[in-house]
């Protein structure tokens, strides 16, 4: 899974969000590679945002992010589903916010928390930029997400989508893509 950059421009700040694969347990080389990429990105950032689901158990992957130097913001996610989970040593976080993306709760508080901790500097992207990714990449990511949602229990995270054809007209977008996965539990499940 590729890193994706999201750009949020506000009058008081421009926030660049590097969407990386989540840290997780896994002994396979692919899992280790994904974890290394996520940590490399986090280490190079001005601040880190750790998303931690309500009801989840704090474990080694979360501890690895919490142990990185620099400002760290903790966002308890899916708080509409229950109370936030206990986090060891909460004092190490510069800010802690509770959010529900589904209900739109706490999102403005999260943006304010991030903006307040960023160093001052010029905007790096034009105000109307939302991402540095091109449309083909975004299309492939959208298809990958749909495949994952449809086949959640049958396929690993290692789903790749390659756009073979991209045709835009005034009233339609036609995409032909190939999707594949390594180690399918049932060969031929993804078409």
Give a structural overview.
With 191 residues, the protein is α/β, with parallel strands linked by helices. The chain is 26% helix and 26% strand. It contains four helices and seven strands; from the N terminus they run ββαβαββααββ. The longest helix has 16 residues, at 135-150.
Features:
three-stranded parallel sheet; 26% helix; single chain; two-stranded antiparallel sheet; globular; 191 residues; 7 strands; alpha/beta
Please render the helix and strand layout as text.
Elements: E1 4-10, E2 13-19, H1 29-43, E3 48-53, H2 60-66, E4 72-77, E5 95-98, H3 107-117, H4 135-150, E6 159-168, E7 173-181
Parallel strand pairs: 3-4, 4-5
Antiparallel strand pairs: 1-2, 6-7
Task: Give a quick summary of the entry.
About 25% of the residues lie in helices and about 25% in strands.
Shape annotation: globular
How much of the sequence lies in strands comes to 25-35%
Q: Count the helices. How many?
A: 4
Using only C-alpha atoms, the radius of gyration works out to 19 Å
């Amino acid at each position: 899974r590729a890193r994706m950059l999201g750009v949020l421009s506000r009058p008081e700040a421009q926030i660049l969000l590097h969407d990386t694969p989540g840290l997780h347990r896994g002994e396979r080389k692919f899992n280790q590679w994904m974890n290394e990429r996520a940590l490399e990105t986090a280490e190079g950032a001005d601040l880190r945002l750790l998303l931690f689901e309500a009801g989840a158990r704090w474990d080694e992957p979360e501890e690895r992010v919490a142990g990185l130097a620099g400002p760290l913001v903790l966002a308890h996610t899916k708080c509409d589903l229950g109370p936030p989970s206990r986090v060891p040593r909460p004092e190490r976080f510069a800010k802690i916010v509770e959010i529900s993306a589904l209900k739109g709760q706490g999102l403005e508080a999260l943006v304010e928390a991030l903006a307040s901790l960023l160093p001052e500097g010029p905007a790096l992207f034009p105000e109307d930029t939302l991402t540095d990714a091109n449309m083909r990449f975004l299309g492939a990511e959208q298809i990958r997400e749909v495949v994952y949602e449809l086949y959640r229990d049958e396929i690993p995270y290692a789903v790749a989508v390659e756009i073979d054809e991209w045709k835009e007209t005034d009233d339609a977008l036609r995409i032909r893509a190939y999707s594949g996965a390594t180690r399918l539990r049932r060969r031929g499940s993804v078409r």
